[in-house]
Amino acid sequence: MTTQPETFEGGCDCRCIRYRLTRRPMFVHCCHCRWCQRETGSAFVLNALIETECVELLQGEPGMVMTPSASGKGQNIARCPHCRIALWSHYPGAGPRFAFVRVGTLDDPDRFPPDIHIFTMSRQPWVILPEGVPSMHEYYDREKYWPQESLARRAAVLASTTTS
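Predicted structure:
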């Protein structure tokens, strides 16, 4: 008997866009930077990093919106063209090969708590960080914090795009 891979579905508020993650994310960031606070209108953003090829559109077509960022390079945000909910982003450092899926748009967001808290230097003072989850003043060393399987997945995507 063949086991089906685990999938995770999500979408926007108006249900115009529906998507499926065809595997577990590589890593989940909880970013407390001021840019993410402003963009979300909240205290942080929770992004599940996954290969873009593992984000399967089931319904609708998001519009890509280039948004300014602290790096000056911007980020491309996939948004529903109707309700404008942000579904995922492509950041210049990772490029279009990787998607940073907004965990809150998943049907079961409880499945993906943060693996790390980043840019806690600008964390809202009333946000209490949980024990046992790494928290970084700014960014972090991927080699130190990512599981080996996730590092291998990232390397495979990068290798496939340099040879194509």
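Summary: The mean pLDDT is 93.
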